[in-house]
Specification:
10 helices, single chain, globular, 5-stranded parallel beta sheet, 42% helix, 3-stranded mixed beta sheet
Amino acid sequence: MQSRFGSRNAIDADHADALYDAFLAFEVDESADVAVIWGEGGAFCAGADLKSLAARGIATRENSATHRSLDFPEDSGPIPRGPMGPTRLRLSKPVIAAIEGPAVAGGMELALWADCRVMAEGAYMGVYSRRFGIPMTDGGTVRLPRLVGQGRALEIIMTGRKVKAEECLRIGLCEIVVPEGQARQSAEDMAQEISRFPQACMRADRRSVYLQNGQGEHAALVQEWYNCNGVFNAEGAVGAARFAHGNGRHGDFSKIS
């Protein structure tokens, strides 16, 4: 997936619709297991197109905003799409953000929506919309504290300051920092590695991580057990048989099929 829109890949309502539709298409595409979202021209996304926002306001496409999640049935039903596009979707498959340059304001929220973030040296995040009195409406106030903790999130949100890639890595706001110009390739390498594995198991474990949010330990453990129900029969039995025949032993990931 590619962000290629306004100045520094700022997103207006029409392009938000295009991103939303692209990720819904990815969700039902059986040939695609992992998506990478990146921005052309050395910028991930500078947020909403403020010129468009000033003229049209925040637009959400209510009449086509129903998304029935395959893996999160409790989320099924109508939900207005996020102003940045897909930020209120919960997909059944992973998304990796490859960040060069700015991922600020709504662009930061778009990056936070992804499962993992790969940042290039020199890339940065920040709630730059703080300068203009525009609130976070694409999940930033929900996802940021879950990644970095409430106090740190509040400081970043309230000050609107620049958060450089090295700090993002240190506080858990991204997972990998790579040399400038290599974020997309690194993210695609990660996507390829993830796609090599048995997908039902990988998606079940990913789903369990999201489902345990807000639950006590006992309830989360029960949820984990029921979440993986049927996965062993679907994939695990075959995998165990491969191991019994010597495949993939001693942490060898080179032969997993």
